[in-house]
Specification:
Elements: E1 5-9, H1 13-25, E2 30-34, E3 46-49, E4 52-55, E5 61-62, H2 67-75, E6 88-93, E7 96-99, E8 104-105, E9 108-109, H3 122-129, H4 145-153, H5 155-170, H6 179-182, H7 184-190, H8 196-204, E10 214-215, H9 222-232, E11 236-237, E12 242-248, E13 251-256, E14 260-263, E15 265-268, H10 272-279, H11 284-291, E16 295-306, E17 316-320, E18 329-334, H12 335-338, E19 347-354, H13 367-382, E20 390-401, H14 407-421, E21 425-427, H15 430-433, H16 437-456
Parallel strand pairs: 1-2, 1-15, 2-11, 6-17, 15-21
Antiparallel strand pairs: 3-4, 5-10, 6-7, 8-9, 12-13, 13-14, 16-19, 16-20, 17-18, 18-19
Helix pairs in contact: 1-9, 1-16, 2-16, 4-5, 7-8, 10-11
């Protein structure tokens, strides 16, 4: 193989993963990673809080999909991973915390015996005890999560369970989000001859109830970032903001504030609205596609309270707040209950989030106002009115891409357009495979293999 030079723009988890796998599949090539900020990892930030290393963004990754675990295994981290101590969670509904029914698939309950009496109306319980609503022939192609779930198990399940769970992932609205992107298993089940409920029950019948749902590292998600960075050696260049990308013959030219880089291929692993600016002059249609993606903003406030003032249910990992509840907060995680390594004998750590695609009030608030509003909601939901021992505020503006119906096809069309019209330029990140850590890892890994196919295929 002739050595090539490849650039990755962006050192979030998708970019770092892309660079890591590029070095695996193209060991003779030179890989450089250009990151505008002064630290790698993007939204995977872990910092000291209340005597622990506590994440400021995602604190774990899904176990039921392979990409996160496979990367940790490749990095030698798999034996260090832990799973939540508490496996259950609740919803704030009817002015109290209601356990989320278990088992469920993305909020669709499969056993009504675990549903409290006043949580769902009797009509919804009757539907769930049977096979759901009479099966309809759904239109071909992608549909909204709302349309799929409403047509199979009714409005109550969608609004009280599925929307809070899926909406919590990317701060979106189930009636507007792509089922093919956010919940492909529900779309498949809805079209199965046995119907959604029967098919989901058959899939989960032999599932191990004790299998981990999430994995995490006791040192926080920064441990994964550090392992990726260590594997890259001197390839990572921080404080290297890319000003422009252009084509010169068979080479790509990357302009930063300090130098020009000439490379054979580029993977742009930045947020879609950043990538769209680079693509505007290279392939305007691609730039327009990425630039049209809507983003939600969020804020995560971490509190520590004395256990003498707050005692949470240690069987629960936290709770979600449906938009219909009318609260400012969207979720609360009990870090010490969720993770054994974050349990403190005297302090309870809560990670409280706010922000949805249709609620950006937090953007206009000062830090003090933000904390006051969330403390008010904690008083309502958990009854805690005492002063916190410590508070940490993390703001994530324009951090959560939204996935409307047809998003999967749009991203595939984008990939094909780039492949055909500007070969050697690829895009990766949350907008392409989803906002979860495994989805971003998958996006970066696939981009690395696509680059190898371009250079040597």
């Amino acid at each position: 193989m002739n050595p090539h030079r490849i650039a990755v723009v962006g050192a979030g988890v998708a970019g770092l993963t892309a660079a890591y796998y590029l070095q695996k599949v193209l060991p003779e090539s030179e890989v450089i990673v250009l990151e505008a900020e002064n630290q790698p990892g993007g939204k995977l930030i872990t910092s000291p809080f209340a005597g622990f290393s506590v994440d400021e963004g995602a604190d774990s990754f899904l176990a039921r999909v392979p990409w996160g675990f496979d990367l940790c295994q490749s990095l030698g981290l798999d034996s260090e991973l832990v799973s939540p101590s508490a496996r259950n969670a609740s919803l704030w509904d009817n002015e109290k915390l209601q356990p989320i029914p278990s088992p469920n698939v993305l909020g669709v309950p499969l056993n009504t015996e675990t549903i409290s009496d006043d949580f769902l109306p009797s009509e919804a319980i009757t539907l769930l005890n049977g096979s759901g609503l009479p099966q309809q022939e759904l239109p071909e192609g992608d549909l909204s999560v709302g349309q799929v779930v409403r047509s199979c198990v009714g409005d109550d399940v969608l609004e009280r369970l599925v929307d809070p769970l899926l909406g919590g992932i990317n701060a979106g609205i189930a009636d507007a989000m792509s089922c093919a992107m956010m919940a492909p298993q529900l779309l498949e089940a809805a079209r199965h001859p046995d119907g959604m409920l029967n098919h989901l029950r058959s899939l989960t019948r032999n599932a191990d109830p004790n299998a981990p749902v999430f994995h995490a590292h006791p040192e926080g998600m920064k441990r994964l970032v550090d392992a990726l960075v260590d594997s890259l050696g001197n390839s990572l260049k921080l404080n290297s903001s890319v000003k422009n990308i252009s084509r010169s013959g068979s080479q790509w030219i990357i302009e930063t504030a300090e130098e020009f880089e000439s490379v054979d291929g580029i993977i742009i692993a930045t947020p879609a609205f950043v990538a769209s600016k680079f693509l505007e002059t290279i392939l305007p249609s691609a730039g327009e596609t990425l630039g049209s993606i809507e983003f939600a903003s969020a804020a995560l406030v971490t509190f520590s309270f004395s256990r003498s003032n707050l005692e949470v249910d240690n069987s629960q990992s936290g709770f979600l707040v449906p938009r219909a509840a009318g609260l400012f907060m969207t979720a609360c995680s009990y870090s010490g209950s969720k993770w054994a390594h974050l349990r403190h004998p005297e302090v309870e750590i809560l990670r409280v989030s706010t922000g949805r695609i249709n609620d950006d009030r937090h953007l206009k608030m000062s830090d003090d106002e933000l904390v006051t509003e969330l403390r008010s909601d904690l008083a309502v939901t958990l009854g805690v009115e005492s002063q916190p021992v410590d508070v940490r505020i993390t703001r994530w503006p324009n951090s959560l891409p939204q996935f409307p119906v047809g998003h999967v096809a749009a991203m595939e069309d984008l990939r094909m357009s780039l492949d055909q019209q500007v070969p050697g330029l690829l895009v990766a990140g949350a907008a392409h495979r989803g906002v979860g850590v495994p989805a971003c890892i998958r996006s970066g890994k696939e981009a690395a293999h696509q680059m190898a196919d371009f250079l040597y295929g």
